[in-house]
Amino acid sequence: MTRQWSRLPVVRWVRESSRDTARADVVAGITVAAMLIPQAMAYATLAGLPPVTGLYAATVPLVVYAALGTSGQLAFGPVAIVALLTASTVEPLAGGDPAAYAGLAALLALEVGLIQLLLGALRAGVLVDLLSHPVTAGFTAGAALVIAASQLDELLGVEVGRADTFVAKIALIVQALPRAHVPTIVIGALAIGALALGKRRRTRVPVALVVVIAAGLAVVAFDLEQAGVAVLGTVPAGLPVPSLRGLDAGAAGALLPGAVTIALLAYLEGISVARALAVRTRQPIDATQELFASGGANLAAGLFQAFPVAGGFSRTAVNYDAGARTPLASVVTAAIVALSVGLFAPLFRSLPSVALAAVVVVAVVGLIDVADARRTWQIDRWDGAVWLLTAATTIVVGVEQGIATGVVVSIALFVLRVGRPHIAELGRVRGADIYRNRARYDTIADPHVAIIRVDGPLFFANSRHVEAWMEGLLANRPKARAVVLDMSAVGAIDASGAHMLSTLDRTLAAADVELRLVTVRGPVHDALVRAGLADAFAGRVDADVETALDGLGVSGPLANPPAGEQPHVRPLR
C-alpha cells in the first residue's frame, strides 16, 4: 500500500517541496486566484450557467488535479473553448429549463471525466493525435469568433435570444442595434479598453479583477441598475454538497458525442501547455497520468454541480511567471476562490454582466492567430486548407461540426498522403549555366540503371501505387537492365508491401531486369525474412547505392556527375 501511495504525484511534490518553493507557490496561487475569479464567472455565463458555477469549477477540481497531475504549473479550471462546447452540447437538450440545464452540465462533466479516465486506463492518449495542429488551431480561431459574437448582446445591453450559428447571431445583433443600451455600451467599452491595455503592458496587477470590481462600484455609485444595466443578482454563498442528481441514461446518451469532443479537446489543451512549460522547468510530464488527473478533476466538477474544466493557457502562463513550483499553487488558488464564495458572495450581486462579457471577449481575441494560419499555409497548402476549412465550418455551421470536419478531413488527407508516398528517381542530374547560374535541363546519368527511393513505409495503402509508379518508369526506360531500390526511408513493411516486392521482382526478372535492394532497415529486414524473401533476394541486398552499383559493374552516377553539373537536389530556403 505504501508503495502504491508513493506513486501519486502529490507525494513526490510534498517530498520535493521546501520553504522557498512553498513561499513561491503561495504568491503564485494568490496571483492566479485574482485572475481566475472574474474569469470563472465569465466563462460560466458563456457556458449558459449562473456565474457562481464557474467558482464551483475553480475549487475542488483544482485540488484534485494538484493531487494527481504531473505538472507543477498547469492551472486547471474553467476555460473558454470548453465553456462554449458545454453550451452548444447542453442548450439543445435543456428545453429552456435552468434547473435541467445545470443538471445536464454537471452530468456532462461527469461523462467527460469518465471518458478521460477510460482513455487513461487504456493508455489511449494517442487518440488525441487525431486533432492535428491545423485542426486545433483552426477550430480555436473559429470558436474564438463564435465566443466573441455570443457576448455582443451583453455588450450592447439587448436580448436577442438563442442563435445556432455565428451568422445567425450576427443577424440578430444587427436587428437589435436600434435597441442598444447606451450606459451598458459605455461600461463595456471602458472595460474592454482597460483589459486590452493591461494585457498589452503585461502588468502583474490583476487587471480583470480590478476592472470587474470597478464596474461593480460604478453600478452602485451611480445607481446604474435602475438605469437598466444588467447585474448578476443574488449569488448563493458557500460550495454545494456533492451530488449525483440529474443522472439519466437517456440524457447521458444524448450528451455523449459532446462529452467525447470535450474530453479530447480539454486533455489536448492541458497536455499541450504542460509539455511546453516542461521544456523550461525540466519536470517530466506523464501523458497517461495527465489523463487520470484531468478525468478526476472533471469528475469533481460534476459532483460539485459545475461544468467541464481543463488546463488553461493564459492562467498557466501567469502561474509560471508568478513563480509556481508545485501544484500547491493550485491548492492556494482553490482555497482563495472557495473563501470568496463563502464570504464575499453577497458582494457579487452588483457586478454588471457586461463587465464579465468584456473579460470573455478580451480573453478569446488572443486565440485568433492569423500569423499561425499564414505560416501553416506557407509550410503546406493542404494543412492550410484544413486550417481554413475547420475555422470556416466552426463559424458558419457550428462548433461540433467544425471540429468533426477538421478531424475527418485530416484523416482523409493522411490516408491520401500515405497512399501516395514521395518517390524519387536518383541519378538524375541538372545541367547548369555557369555564367548565368541558371538551370537548363535534366539528364539521366546512366540510362541502364534506375535508382528509386521510396520515402515512406510500404504497406497495403500504397504498395499498388509504388508498383504502378515503377512499372510506368520502366515503360519509358527500355534500355534499363537493373533497378536499385533504395529503402533507407522505408521504416516499415507489411504483408502487402512484401507481396508487392516479390511480384515486382518476378515481373522485372521476366523482362531481364535485375532488382537490387539497398539500405534495408532492421524491422524491414526481419519482415522480409518472415515473408520468406531472404532466399529470393540472396546476394541482391546491399548496404548502400554505391555498393549496389559496383555489384552491377557500373559507376555511381551520383558520386561522379559530369563536369559542370550537380545532383538534382533542392536546398531548403
List the helices and strands and how they pair.
Elements: H1 2-6, H2 9-16, H3 19-46, H4 51-56, H5 60-68, E1 76-77, H6 80-94, H7 98-121, H8 133-150, H9 152-156, H10 166-176, H11 182-201, H12 207-221, H13 249-281, H14 287-303, E2 310-311, H15 313-321, H16 328-343, H17 353-365, H18 370-379, H19 381-396, H20 399-419, E3 422-426, E4 428-433, E5 438-444, E6 449-455, H21 463-475, E7 482-486, H22 495-510, E8 514-518, H23 522-530, E9 541-542, H24 545-552, E10 565-567
Parallel strand pairs: 6-7, 7-8, 8-9
Antiparallel strand pairs: 1-2, 3-6, 4-5, 4-10
Helix pairs in contact: 3-12, 3-15, 3-16, 3-17, 5-14, 5-16, 6-7, 6-13, 7-13, 7-14, 8-17, 8-19, 8-20, 11-12, 11-17, 13-14, 18-19, 19-20
Summarize the structure.
By secondary structure, the chain is an alpha/beta fold. The chain is built from 24 helices and ten strands. It has helices at 2-6, 9-16, 19-46, 51-56, 60-68, 80-94, 98-121, 133-150, 152-156, 166-176, 182-201, 207-221, 249-281, 287-303, 313-321, 328-343, 353-365, 370-379, 381-396, 399-419, 463-475, 495-510, 522-530, 545-552; strands at residues 76-77, 310-311, 422-426, 428-433, 438-444, 449-455, 482-486, 514-518, 541-542, 565-567.
